[in-house]
Amino acid sequence: MEKTLDFWFEYASPYSYPAAMRVEQLAEQAGVNVRWRVFLLGAVFQQYGWKTTPNELFPAKGNYMWHDMQRICASLNLPYQRPSTFPRNGMLAARISANYAESEWIGDFIRAVYTANFAHDQDIGNSELIANILDKLGQDSAQIIAEANSDEGKQKLKQQTQQALQQDVFGAPFMMVGNEPFWGNDRLEQAIYFAAHGKLPASVILA
Amino acid sequence: MEKTLDFWFEYASPYSYPAAMRVEQLAEQAGVNVRWRVFLLGAVFQQYGWKTTPNELFPAKGNYMWHDMQRICASLNLPYQRPSTFPRNGMLAARISANYAESEWIGDFIRAVYTANFAHDQDIGNSELIANILDKLGQDSAQIIAEANSDEGKQKLKQQTQQALQQDVFGAPFMMVGNEPFWGNDRLEQAIYFAAHGKLPASVILA
């Protein structure tokens, strides 16, 4: 049986950044295949009756998160700059990610969008920025953006978000290995270990 | 300078169980001193306008947490049984923990209370159960319970809970190393590493 990990992510989610940057490399080392599964976390928050992100609703938690992002990225040698606008509009990037999830360039695209937002403080809601990323990857940006913004392209992201809700994906990043759920960047290594070995690790060694 | 970690915990918090059971042993191996810091998480939830635990407010998250508790405890070889009543009333245990935080038996007391609730499905709100735990530890249970329930004893827990809020301790377990905050059982090893080395680990090895 092929070892597969579904990586559920949302572009506005800060903790999805360090996880998205690392998941393919860590999974490859463990012989695990990654499926990129974008969704809209706002659909989950709506179920809770939240009209904004929990980082605004719960200030102590939000402050902790931004501090944590900085130290996590530093410890991983990931470039990081706190976005001057938060959350940014990741709708176009999400539509593209849902419609081209099987394309060989999708991992590079996703990492480039996260890097623009969380390392370079750029507006990923700007379609020109998204087009530039696609062009640099040698893709036909005009066609891809038109397809992503078509009725069918929009529908694809909506369906995938519904699937996330049905699978109780309540946060991001969220890893599913078969029916086994793992929530958060903190659990990325563990989820990959589980995909590779079919069980949780017994010990954690930090170095 | 002595290396010290403040371990903030709440008796009703499931994830505090695996963390409380492990923190002293892991800290000792790393040459770090643990200060037991109990508080009432309800005071945080009141700030959010929540009248019950987030596990009831957000069912998908609650279901994940109980599943996660089971697999985490199994992987750590910790006995675990999902409490048939949740949350249980940990007020007396918390008052004792606040008032006797410096006593040499306090770690054993705290672990015994957590084990009663999360391994043996016992009612930790029952003062006889608490008295039995103290008696087994060779302590004068009648005197300790009377002091914990005195006006002064109650006040001590209230003050410590206020201190938690002032330090933005918004969940449990919560580790503070100086001003550096770490939230959750997932971050226990990292917090101890930080207390020992003054920096975060660069890599995580699971085995």
UniProtKB/TrEMBL annotation, chains A, B:
It comes from the Bacteria. The active site is at S13 (nucleophile). It catalyses: 2-hydroxychromene-2-carboxylate = (3E)-4-(2-hydroxyphenyl)-2-oxobut-3-enoate. Keywords: Isomerase. InterPro entries: DSBA-like_thioredoxin_dom, GST_Kappa/NadH, HCCAis_GSTk, NahD-like, Thioredoxin-like_sf. It holds the Pfam family DSBA. Residues 4-190 form the DSBA-like thioredoxin domain. GO terms for biological process: glutathione metabolic process; naphthalene catabolic process. Its EC number is 5.99.1.4. GO terms for molecular function: 2-hydroxychromene-2-carboxylate isomerase activity; glutathione peroxidase activity; glutathione transferase activity. Belongs to the GST superfamily. NadH family. This is 2-hydroxychromene-2-carboxylate isomerase. It comes from Alkanindiges illinoisensis.
